[in-house]
Amino acid sequence: MSNDDVADRVEQLLSELALDEKLRLLAGRGLFRTHGVKRVGLRPMRMTDGPHGVAWHSSFRRATRFPAAIGIAATWDRALAEELGEALGAEARAAGRQMILAPGVNICRTPMNGRTFEYFTEDPYLNAGLAAAVVTGIQSKGVAACVKHFAANNQETDRMSVDAKVGERALREIYLPGFEAAVRDGGAHAVMACYNKVNGEHGVENRFLLRQVLRGEWGFDGTVVSDWGAARSSQSTASCLTAGLNLEMPGVMAKRFRAKDLRKALEADDIVEEQIDANLRGLLHTMVVTGCDRQQESPPSGYDIEYVELALRAARESMVLLKNDGALLPLNKLAIRRIAVLGKHAGKTFTGPLKGGSSGVWPKRTVTPEHALREFLPDVEFVDDAREADVAVVFAGLGHGRGQDCEHFDRTSLELPDEQVGLIRRTAARNPNTVVVLINGSPVAMDPWLADVRSVLEAWYGGQEAGTAIAQLLFGDANPGGKLPVTFPRRLEDVPAHASERTYPGVAGEVHYDEGIMVGYRYCDTADIEPLFPFGHGLSYTTFAYRDLRLSASDWDGSGPLGVELAVENTGGRPGAEIVQLYVTQRAPRVVRPPKELKGFARVDLQPGGERTVHLELHRADLGYYDEAERRWRTDPGEYEISIGASSRDIRLREALTLRA
Ligand code: BGC
Fold this sequence. Notes:
single chain; binds beta-D-glucopyranose
């Protein structure tokens, strides 16, 4: 259906609907559906939670459980993200759902955020690329993506009420680009307004965010859905309607957009019917593009779409080799007689409804790491005493309990639980070949034990096939290629959000983003802080050489794209993937700018000895910043540096660039 056809259909429906019917549509019914209007052939729009798969509590279906979003981000793979989106869309469709509440694109401002695992990254550019890809994939299956939580929902502590005081520059440069890309590049049909306030107004009634930015600047014409129950703490029916909220969810908790609320507001002249129509347009648009105004199709092939292979590939690509002293990994299957597999995370099942909150998926199958290792090593003896083993693998990490990686509550410590630290240290003291596999969805501190162990693999919450992926990576059947989408700090004091109570978790109901744009590596670079592991870091079992960086112009007028080319060669002995990162630096900026910012990346698969030319592109806007005084984007002429890195702290090539006026 073309845009014009959709718009015509929306107008036609509007003209057919009676006022009573219109008033009923703006609030949902039950937990995960809207009302329908049978008389005009409009079926209810049904929803399911995401972003890690079709969530059980909202679909009552088993579905494929994919790696957690932070792991998807660690792949830096747009094509994979799109494929994942396609799978989410197809499974949502098969479950009879027209909308999936995914992706989540809030920025990792602090690793303490309980929902870090549900989001991608600390970097707006990486966020934008992945967000657009996932949305494109979902929507290719006729299902609406609902990108959440708009905006500045960067902590779970007081999430319903806290007022995020964030300057416009930080909003524009850091917190909004993921949403913007989901809407402008991905064409997202829905956006979920957050619980929290942003600069004084709740997300559901925030005129700046909803009217000026989302609809005005980005041209959004779909549905703004309240987060579940978020409109309850808004000021009034009129404030939500005027700001442009299209749908209050869920029906059972509605307080502003029930028919009786709207009728009362109409009678009091707080709102007029044209406003109701205007807001209905957005909702009807989403209902029409997802086919709610047509006969229900029978779900494709019953409910048996399973993406086992994709879940496995995504898990494998997502895992990050953080440390590998003396190339202990990959382990050699044939040289190991005894292995000690320790730690309760070895039995991690990656399953269960509502584990960690609304993203819990209940898959039909799940492979624990220990199970996969036993299958993988039929002739190896599994021992409990690390002293008797040729190699000891300790599985450690977090879980989805309160205070760890969990919706509604923030983490309470950056450290691993004491008993795990104890186990790692004891094991390392008993066996010089100790490997730690981490299963968690947000950065953890490692200083108390990192030096004692030889290898660390960050496996995130790898989804239903995680066990197999871990076994394949540990034994070299696959080569780790993921890179960190977030900085792993040494200690919380190194995270600027933790400068004071005022900056986190907030005082008197306000949390002040005093660090502005200096989030993640931007801060570490500016303050010259050595992180535990930097943004973009990840090792491989092979090695890569970078050379021949060439810009299509060294003196650029910024009118067309600037081509950036370099060669990458696999100089080691195994096939592998390298994630090439492009950073931009302005040499003498007139305002404070981060020492470098990610503005390009590519994931390249190479056979041993293989070489590839990587083509990246820069646009004038990639050199820009948001001028808070003038309230507009600016790109200043002058001297820049283009650097190419294997991580944000491992820059391999540099070229100077002059931008002409
Ligand atoms: C969460 C959303 C979720 C919604 C529906 C809310 O509490 O913040 O992410 O989509 O519930 O389950």
